[in-house]
Design goal:
The complex is a heterodimer of chains A (282) and B (353).
Chain A (H helix, E strand, L loop, with lengths): L10 H6 L8 E11 L2 E12 L3 E5 L6 H8 L10 E4 L2 E2 L5 H7 E4 L11 H6 L14 H13 L15 H14 L4 E5 L7 H16 L3 E5 L3 H7 L2 E6 L2 E6 L1 H4 L2 H8 L3 E5 L6 E5 L4
Parallel strand pairs in A: 3-8, 3-9, 6-7, 7-8
Antiparallel strand pairs in A: 1-2, 1-4, 4-5, 9-10, 11-12
Helix pairs in contact in A: 5-6, 6-7
Chain B lengths: L15 H4 L3 H19 L9 H11 L9 H36 L11 H15 L5 H22 L5 H26 L3 H11 L7 H19 L2 H5 L5 H6 L4 H23 L5 H13 L3 H25 L8 H23 L1
Helix pairs in contact in B: 2-14, 3-4, 4-9, 4-12, 4-13, 4-14, 5-6, 5-7, 5-12, 6-7, 6-12, 9-12, 13-14, 13-15
């Protein structure tokens, strides 16, 4: 597979954005969400530079998935909230326009569908194709490119149900890429994948960010997050504890505070990024 | 990247060859089959009228030539058989469409107008008109009944939490049982003699009473509601991976779901009003079509409608002729044929998908 990615942002979205300045970013302010009387996301602010790979980490129930759904506009972000991406106000945007700018790849290990892989990826074209129109050669070419980008072209005619967990996750990524987003949200994309599938999936995402896509992934594994993310947002009880580059954020104190476990944080022998060694003797 | 992933040989699913036939070709073939079914089924019957005489009659009513038949025999063709065949086609198409939409929206392969309670709601509306003398037109009452059952199902499901597929289906079950009990209550309270007979065959599903007004109602519902519904395939497909995924693809989940379910209530109400509760068409036909053309609703919707029409035309023709002079309510035949076919589909789906 070539590492040259692939899917340029849709021209209409690009036209809407004037000269991208150096500070262009996803900027979310005062995002809150209440579920069953509990504040699941509590006044979150976060910023991710355009073209960066951001990771949201935190314990179960910290609000990682909910925060992604709020940014994606699936849940209402509360009064006073604002989410700006590279000059566009995501919250006031029409749903369909927003779906051309950002895509969400969720984990779908257990979904039953006999759709073929090609048709699953074609779902990503939904916001681009007029409601009463058919998919055209352009759409088919974009779907083929997206499958190629995740090395799944050979699986195009397979039934989605028959794929392994790692293959399904790649197809979900291809579907999101076929949406030609400028912002890609990934909700625990590496869950239940073996280590090789995890590394290969996140490498694919990083190849996309290298080409200008902005990505935010909710991740569980701290060392993996540190290895791939340019910026880490630490969430606990619906609030941002801290955020910044992995080497600044991931400290033994922070891990003790947020997760309640002791660990040593070592520099990776070759990349210098943090590697977490948990203290399992106590 | 070093690892080149290839699909293992021999894992291509069965039916792949069929699926390479373009959908448009299937639509053309099925449409031709539908036309052929209408013109053939109308010639089948016990009154010993030849095919040529049938066509003389039909053409004369279309303003071409004269019929050689007596007024009575002409009436059998034009006032009985023709409207009945056309109604059967429209009802089959409508039920198959409703089933397809509901299965996709609830992501439940067993969903159909019956499961979500629409048919029992429509039955209650119709029974109220026939037996209680409620001053409404039969199809209007059936639609209102279907809509009431739908609202009951959705309100019950959303009161219990968010509108998940499972909750929707369970709520449909509760509402369906309740309306079914009310239908039985009304029948046993009021019916006697002929009314009892009429209601029974109506509840089992029968096209014996279909005349031109039934054609107007059922074909009208297909034109006004069914055809727009056939064009919603892409939106339905967006629900494949659930509501969040549909929303992230730019689909307004709540509005779309209400709009499509209301449309299926309209369609079901119109069909139940002219034919009673014919079961299994909405459940079986979408699955049969999916086995052949795959899962994409843009292909499944129009083909399910056409196949449902052909299916019910022939089943109803069998219902009125096979046991001549006795006529079966068509719903008995659809159940007798539908249940084993459905079991077969389940087994096949287990093995091949």
């Amino acid at each position: 597979m070539t590492s040259t990615p692939l899917l340029s942002p849709s021209s209409s979205a690009a036209a809407a954005v004037t000269e991208a300045d150096a500070d262009a970013a996803l900027t979310a302010r005062d995002i809150s969400f209440t579920r069953d009387g509990r504040l699941v996301v509590d006044g979150v602010d976060c910023t991710i530079p355009v073209g960066a790979f951001g990771a949201i980490i935190g314990p179960n129930g910290a609000g990682k998935s909910t925060l992604l759904h709020l940014i994606a506009g699936i849940l209402p972000a509360g009064t006073g909230a604002s989410i700006d991406f590279d000059g566009s106000d995501l919250l006031s945007m029409r749903r369909r326009d927003r779906a051309r700018m950002l895509a969400l790849a969720e984990q779908h290990g257990d979904t039953d569908t006999a759709l073929r892989v090609r048709d699953v990826v074609m779902l990503g074209r939904t916001p681009h194709i007029g409601r009463w129109r058919s998919e055209g050669p352009t759409d088919r070419a974009i779907v083929a490119d997206a499958l190629d980008a995740v090395s799944m072209s050979a699986f195009a005619d397979r039934v989605f149900d028959t794929l392994s967990g790692g293959e399904r996750q790649r197809v979900q990524l291809a579907r999101a890429l076929a949406q030609q987003p400028r912002l890609l949200l990934l909700d625990e994309p590496t869950n239940h994948l073996d280590i090789r599938a995890q590394l290969s999936l996140l490498s694919l995402v990083r190849a996309q960010t290298a080409a200008g896509l902005t990505a935010i992934a909710a991740l569980h594994d701290l060392t993996i997050a540190a290895a791939y993310a340019d910026r880490i947002i630490v969430l606990a009880d619906g609030r941002v504890v801290t955020s910044g580059p992995a080497s600044e954020v991931l400290t033994a104190d922070l891990i003790a505070d947020v997760y309640g476990v002791r660990a040593d944080v070592l520099p990776h022998p070759r990349t210098g990024r943090p590697v977490i060694a948990f203290d399992t003797d106590s | 990247m070093s690892q080149i992933l290839t699909a293992p040989a021999g894992t291509r699913e069965r039916g792949a060859a069929l699926r390479r036939i373009p959908v448009a070709a299937w639509v053309v073939v099925q449409f031709a089959l539908l036309v052929l079914s209408i013109v053939t089924a109308v010639t089948v019957g016990p009154a010993d009228i030849t095919v040529g005489e049938v066509w003389g009659s039909v053409l004369s009513h279309l303003g071409i030539g004269d019929t050689s038949l007596t007024a009575l025999r002409d009436g059998i063709v034009w006032e009985l058989r023709m409207p009945r065949v056309l109604t059967a086609g429209a009802v089959g198409a409508g039920l198959a469409l409703s089933g397809t939409v509901m299965q996709s929206l609830t992501r439940n392969s067993l969903a159909d107008p019956y499961l979500l309670g629409l048919s029992s709601g429509a039955s209650l509306g119709a029974v109220a008109v026939i037996l209680l003398g409620i001053g409404l037109l039969l199809p209007v009452a059936a639609f209102l009944g279907a809509l009431a059952a739908l609202l009951g199902t959705l309100l019950l499901a959303s009161a219990a939490g968010s509108l998940t597929p499972t909750r929707t289906v369970l709520a449909g079950l509760a509402v369906s049982s309740f309306f079914g009990a009310l239908v039985s209550l009304v029948i046993f309270w009021t019916a006697s003699g002929d009314a009892y007979q009429e209601i029974l065959s109506w509840l089992l599903g029968s096209l014996a009473g279909a005349r031109w007004p039934a054609v107007a109602i059922s074909v009208g519902a297909i034109v006004v509601v069914g055809i727009p519904l056939m064009l919603t395939g892409r939106t339905l497909d967006a629900f494949t991976f659930g509501d969040n995924a549909a929303s992230a693809l730019g689909v307004g989940v709540t509005g779309t779901r209400w709009m499509l379910l209301t449309a299926t209530a309209l369609l079901t109400g119109a069909m139940v009003a002219v034919s009673g509760s014919i079961g299994f068409v909405g459940l079986i036909l979408p699955h049969m079509v999916r086995l052949v053309v795959g899962q994409r609703n843009r292909a499944v919707l129009p083909l399910a409608a056409l196949t449902g029409a052909v299916f019910l035309i022939w089943i109803d023709t069998a219902a009125r002729t096979v046991f001549d002079p006795r006529e079966l309510p068509v719903g008995i035949l659809t159940a007798v044929i539908g249940a084993p076919v459905f079991a077969l589909l389940l087994l096949r789906a287990r093995r091949f998908s």
